[in-house]
């Protein structure tokens, strides 16, 4: 008889679930419309368009977590290599009643952590050496509880797929443009298509980017809330947030720029400049918003 699936003790978040379903529906609809427009404009290339879009989507779904982990320098470690990190993950998993993910360390002075995985069975949680060196045990547990809530709520997989659809629109545009340019001189309808496709692709990317950013900010607040309620120590998570954000100012710009492309996965965003335009379209809410929410939860937990 198959083992019955257990439900984690992370507090369910109906708001997050609704936003994930809505975002996936809208981005999926956007992507279908985009492919439909490509098929209409480049009728002769429909087999290539469908084959490439399908193959890239499947590849992204199955390998996105490995690609992201490798890009951020994650190296899986044993309990003997990282006993404190494994111990903290064990305690959170026992508290949350969820299977233990693979545990990894990234050799980086940028104090941060992330989680990837399509499901709890394929999940990986990673902390940087900079984070392990700076945080107290209770602060580290708060950060790990935050990251594991992403796995429990499955928003890691949703964000990965949603982010990829915009990128896929750009890739397909380049491919169809290369194929269409060779025929544009002989066929006036192809020439019009070649002119329209970049504009359509730009609109698809912009809309998908905004949708994923809105979801990303909410999911970070949801993860803070779930971690604080699970551990019962919102002050420890607030302390970790304050410490990590404050330490970013002392990290070399080169290291921050290397981490910036993966901001949607990190516990706290890495910015190469306090005035960076990326803050306007940040994947995370502001530190003030996160601390204010944790302060409210702390007050709630203190009530009789």
Automatic annotation (TrEMBL):
The keyword Hydrolase applies. GO terms for cellular component: plasma membrane. The active site is at 147. GO terms for biological process: proteolysis. Its cofactor is Zn(2+). Keywords: Cell membrane, Hydrolase, Membrane, Metal-binding, Metalloprotease, Protease, Transmembrane, Transmembrane helix, Zinc. The keyword Ribosomal protein does not apply. This is Protease HtpX homolog. It comes from Streptomyces inusitatus. The lineage of its organism: Bacteria, Bacillati, Actinomycetota, Actinomycetes, Kitasatosporales.
């Amino acid at each position: 008889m198959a083992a019955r699936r257990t439900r984690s003790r992370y507090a369910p978040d109906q708001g997050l679930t609704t936003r994930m379903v809505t975002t996936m529906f809208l981005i999926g609809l956007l992507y279908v419309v985009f492919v439909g427009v490509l098929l209409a404009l480049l009728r002769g290339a429909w087999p290539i368009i469908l084959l490439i879009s399908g193959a890239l989507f499947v590849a992204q779904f199955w390998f996105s977590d490995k690609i992201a982990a490798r890009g951020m320098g994650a190296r899986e470690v044993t309990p003997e290599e990282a006993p404190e990190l494994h111990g903290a993950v064990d305690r959170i998993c026992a508290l949350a009643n969820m299977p233990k993910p693979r545990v990894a360390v990234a050799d980086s002075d940028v104090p941060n952590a992330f989680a990837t995985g399509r499901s709890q069975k394929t999940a990986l949680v990673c902390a940087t050496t900079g984070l392990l060196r700076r945080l107290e045990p209770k602060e580290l547990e708060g950060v790990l509880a935050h990251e594991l809530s992403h796995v429990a709520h499955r928003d890691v997989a949703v964000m990965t797929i949603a982010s990829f659809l915009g990128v896929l629109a750009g890739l397909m545009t380049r491919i169809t443009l290369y194929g269409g340019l060779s025929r544009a001189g002989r066929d006036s309808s192809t020439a019009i298509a070649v002119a329209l496709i970049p504009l359509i692709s730009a609109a698809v990317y912009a809309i998908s980017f905004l949708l994923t950013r809105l979801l990303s900010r909410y999911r970070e607040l949801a993860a803070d809330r779930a971690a604080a309620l699970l551990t019962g120590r919102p002050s420890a998570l607030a302390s970790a947030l304050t410490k990590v954000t404050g330490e970013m100012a002392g990290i070399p710009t080169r290291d921050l720029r290397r981490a910036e492309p993966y901001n949607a996965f990190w516990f706290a965003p890495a910015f190469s400049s306090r005035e960076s335009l990326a803050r306007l379209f940040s994947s995370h809410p502001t530190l003030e918003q996160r601390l204010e929410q944790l302060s409210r939860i702390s007050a709630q937990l203190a009530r009789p």
